[in-house]
Amino acid sequence: MRMKLLVVMVMMALVLALGTGCAKKQMSAEPAPATDQSANAGSLDASEQALAEANQKAMVAAEKEITQNRIYFDFDKFDLRADSKEVLKAKAELLKKYPTWKLLVEGHCDERGTEEYNLALGERRARAAYEFLVVLGVPSSSLKVVSFGEERPADAGHNETAWSMNRRDEFKIFK
Fold first, then answer.
1. pTM for this model (two decimals)
2. What structural domains and CATH numbers belong to the chain?
């Protein structure tokens, strides 16, 4: 019984394979385009492609600017410094230019203080940047805040230089 079933299945598979393999390709009866039109289309395609490449390069540069420019905070503070406000203004302009982007604001702290305190301080730092961006016209729906406290130091050193690098907000684009 099994043998008959196997033979029938193999035969069906062969019929299917041969049936689809013999299908003829339909030929369309379109006239060839005139040479003037094809030359125009070629130059139009090239200019569109060049424009698309330029837009892509601009978008990559904008994304790099948003994610690489961090803002820094003074010890035990979450208020925005003047230099941080300028960085955030530039980010706001880019976010308005690319409204489909969503920005994650990450708050960070140095190693001094308890873990709980630093998580709360990192949250307040990220929230300060978030609120400033909203005031500048960035929709709150395109922003998200997270605090890492002291968990992800930018500099693993144990001195004022390292600590000042760790008191920061970082920015990531997310989908």
1. 0.69
2. 71-174 (3.30.1330.60)
